Amino acid sequence: MPSVIKIAFIVVALAWPAAAQQTPKETPLVIEKQGSFFVGGHDIHSETLSTLPAYAPTGTVTVDQMYVRFQIPVNAARHSITLIHGCCLTGKTWETTPDGRMGWDEYFVRKGHSTYVIDQAARGRSAANTSTINSVKTGKAPLDQLPTVFAAGHEAAWTIFRFGPEYPKVFAGMQFPLESQAEFWKQMVPDWSASLPTPNPTVSALSELAIRLDGTVLVSHSQSGIYPFQTAALNTKGIAGIVSIEPGGCPAAGADMRPYTKMPILVLFGDYVDQSPRWAPRLKSCKEFVQAANKAGGNVELVVLPDIGIHGNSHMLMQDKNSLEIADWLLGWIDRQIEK
Amino acid sequence: MPSVIKIAFIVVALAWPAAAQQTPKETPLVIEKQGSFFVGGHDIHSETLSTLPAYAPTGTVTVDQMYVRFQIPVNAARHSITLIHGCCLTGKTWETTPDGRMGWDEYFVRKGHSTYVIDQAARGRSAANTSTINSVKTGKAPLDQLPTVFAAGHEAAWTIFRFGPEYPKVFAGMQFPLESQAEFWKQMVPDWSASLPTPNPTVSALSELAIRLDGTVLVSHSQSGIYPFQTAALNTKGIAGIVSIEPGGCPAAGADMRPYTKMPILVLFGDYVDQSPRWAPRLKSCKEFVQAANKAGGNVELVVLPDIGIHGNSHMLMQDKNSLEIADWLLGWIDRQIEK
Known about the structure:
The structure is a homodimer of 340-residue chains.
Chain A: H1 2-15, H2 18-22, E1 29-46, E2 59-73, E3 80-84, H3 104-110, E4 115-119, H4 131-137, H5 154-160, H6 181-185, H7 201-213, E5 216-221, H8 227-234, E6 239-245, E7 265-269, H9 280-295, E8 300-304, H10 323-339
Parallel strand pairs in A: 3-4, 3-5, 5-6, 6-7, 7-8
Antiparallel strand pairs in A: 1-2, 2-4
């Protein structure tokens, strides 16, 4: 009889989707206030808005604004958290994971922090400027005026996001929910950032947001990893802390370090970094930045997750199967360094 | 003394922003479950994903998927509501209004309905396909292969959205919060729909969503006004009702009416329609559709808001100052016709 019972148990376990096993039924989420708004943006005149008769070619459009969606819990902690996605993605990055588990956007609210999720300028719900496509199409501008817009293919993204050394090989112990990769690929969108001014308009919008929020932790990822540093260099006002997750770049060690001494900073990397020719040099240069910032009087920490006993994390660690374990660790860091 | 008191009262009233007067402090919002996911989409191969050395030109991307964000209240009503935005906009349409009042997305949840807000295929968080821009840029395809993508300028949109007869004139009694128009213009995004297959991939995605939700009211607007009808023509399964707000078009009166006899249907128009050369013919043709559908045995209603005593509404009636009054009326219609 015991063997029969054991078999039945296994069958039931297999029939349950992974998400149901890992996400216990939650108590209702109680929200003091939620909503969305835009920050930044400016008006431009264009003669090539449209090639269709139903829409006039000439007129004014607003560009470079940043979409922000927020939720404020009852009795919110002093400092809010602002979530800034990376390349080829949108604010969806932080929402429900590809395999249906709770995203950090909701988890942080449940843990008492007001949470602001943005779409970078020219991405997602923040408008791109498509006028030059029509300028070229109608012969008013040469080919090289076309925007520089790229999409990351699944195969290239596989390596960049460190699901494995190359498509479709998988690193041993990988925590990304690859069984739900089809849902993840749907999150990816074309990236217009190479067509935008430098620094990215998202940076000044983040500064405006931080000042408005009067104390927010800027949590960035990958391509946007550098944005909170650029925001602090612009104005440290309102920035309670910086968490740069797997940044595409850290400030140069020779740069003016003073802005980075004004708030606690965490640079966070996942696993398999030493096996990635793309990421290993970035980790190295971030270590140099951390050393320089601390020498200048900063409170800057660099953590590589395997070094604190958390293994198997991809570049998309906010969606990995242990994403809430990492969120808990991160909240602990915020409590120790910022909330106090 | 009374006159002094009266003056003080007027000063206080003027100092309050309009939103504060109209939106009383709400009780906390209690959510059983919230999250986001994608519906639809398929993989394509491209040789022109990128012109940048950091991203490979060749690979697979997923396109035509539809982003969906949802909130389920505790003890939800039997039927959910799916909110489908119109031209040159995203799901933001239904969120916080330009002047900071509660959007229908939250209001319907507070009134007990699970609410699903989508971004149309190739809009907002649903990826557009930008490969042909790079094909043309690299000389691999002729100019006419560039996508047809347009933006509505403020001036043209002013007339289309019936803020007034022409920019910047305002219709008498206008309910749109024009003092916050700068925030509204930031909501507008380029529209790729003319580059998409017909019917728009959003239609099959809506069908998949309706079947999954097993009874949802498809609430569409403007450009997407026709989508629920196209969805019903594809498959009526899961569609509990249709609310088409200011549709750019209704089904032709000569079309097969059978799909439109399977669920209650409401076609809703705002004010000033007879003063708009763009909208007056659309209202007329929708009336012909309603007559034909009812003759075929349908339960189809067409309401022009001034006819029921609600005045001053623009094309963007879900953002007008009386938006929650209209929401209440709409919920009444849903209760009578669908929830019962």
